[in-house]
Amino acid sequence: MVTLTEAEESGENVPKGGGTLVYRQRLATRLTHWLWAISLFFMLLSGLQIFMARPDLYIGQQSGFGFDNTVLSIGARQVGGEMRGVTSLFGASFDTTGWLGLVPQGDGLARKAFPGWLTIPGYRDLATGRIVHFFFAWLLVATLFVWLLASAFNGHLRELWPSGRDLKRLPRDVADHLRLRFVHDGRYNVLQKLSYAGVLFVALPLMILTGLTMSPGVVAKFPILLDVFGGRQTARTIHFAVMLALLLFFVVHILMVVLAGPINELRSIVTGWYRTSAEKRP
User: Residue ranges of the Cytochrome b561 bacterial/Ni-hydrogenase domain (predicted)?
Assistant: First the structure.
């Protein structure tokens, strides 16, 4: 991490203003951050388009009427003489009319798993959804590879990996977050390190591997993937669950940016410069 004084001495352009500025986010980190955001956005909406072709999730190698392994099902059926959207989760059914299963379309309701604004394209088009999904999936893979190489060379990986000392501070850090007390010292706190490491080293690789496991061509060459994930249907369920986890991470991430100071946080991920406070981390 470069300080304002060091940057000025090296002749770099730095933002003007009071307070201490540090160069927190390197160019590779900033570029890959925004490429991930774009990729995951298009992958989410195109993934839901693909999911609509079979809006059910199972555990195991196979699925169908002869198996009782459904964990999630989104559809529409007659309830009391009226068509209703129904979502079933682990055997429990919920009326989701207007949201899932039976959704607004034009002047009425259509039997679709998701409304048009939640999918790419907004109408039923599995072929285009797959094209969009796979394009941004491979962009995500390439971006992750570039980030790993750049971060290994510039030391960013060490900044993200939680140490034993970090883990000892975990209870204090959780308490500080619950009190909305944030320390702006330019370093990652332990909750940030754990969440970012979880996304970059667990969630994204798991999303990629389960996605590959759903490909007949890939598992024909690497059948071990079916054993690792317990079958193609289980891999699909894990893929969907990781998507929900990433969506939750996004919501919490945006909330933390707003609470910690959106101007400072956005400047950091756009320009690299982060304004620190006088308060030091204990």
Answer: 25-272
Q: What is the pLDDT of residues 7-31, one digit of tens each?
A: 444 444 444 444 588 998 999 999 9
Q: 148 with 69, same domain?
A: no
* Closest by Cα among 157, 140, 160 to 148: 157
169 close to 190: Cβ distance less than 8 angstroms: yes
- Contact at 8 Å (CB) between 132 and 140? no
Other CB atoms within a 10 A radius of the CB of residue 85 amount to 23
Of 113, 129, 160, which residue sits at a domain end?
113
Q: Tell me whether residue 282 is in a domain.
A: no
Please give the tally of structural domains in the chain.
2
Q: What is the pTM of this model?
A: 0.87
Edge-to-edge strand ranges of the sheet holding 2-3: 2-3, 20-23, 273-276
Distance in angstroms (rounded) separating the CA atoms of residues 119 and 88? 21
Helix (H) or strand (E) holding 21: strand 20-23
Cis ω on the peptide bond leading into residue 121 (within 30° of 0)? yes
pLDDT in tens, 150-198: 999 998 888 888 889 989 999 999 999 999 888 888 889 999 999 999 9
251 and 172 in a common domain: yes
Residue 281 included in any domain: no
Domain of 219 in residue numbering reads as: 2-54+119-276
User: Which amino acid, 81?
Assistant: G
- Which tokens go with 165? 């000392």
In a domain, 262, yes or no: yes
Two structure tokens written together for 276:
């620190």
Which of 113, 130, 158 is at the close of a domain? 113
Compute how many other C-beta atoms are within 10 angstroms of the C-beta atom of residue 276.
Answer: 20
